[in-house]
Amino acid sequence: MEKKLLDKAKEVVREKYASIAVSSSSCCGDDRRNPEYSMIGESYGSQDGYVKDADLNLGCGLPVEFAQIKEGDTVVDLGSGAGNDVFIARAETGAEGRLIGVDFTEEMIALARKNAIKLGYDNVEFVQGDIEQMPLEDETADVVVSNCVLNLVPDKKQAYRETYRILKPGAHFSISDVVVEGAIPPDLKEQAELYAGCVTGSIPLNEYLSILEEVGFRDVEVQKKRQIDLPESLLEELLTPSQRERYHEADLGIFSITVFGRK
Question: What are the structural domains of the chain?
Answer without folding.
Answer: 3-262 (3.40.50.150)
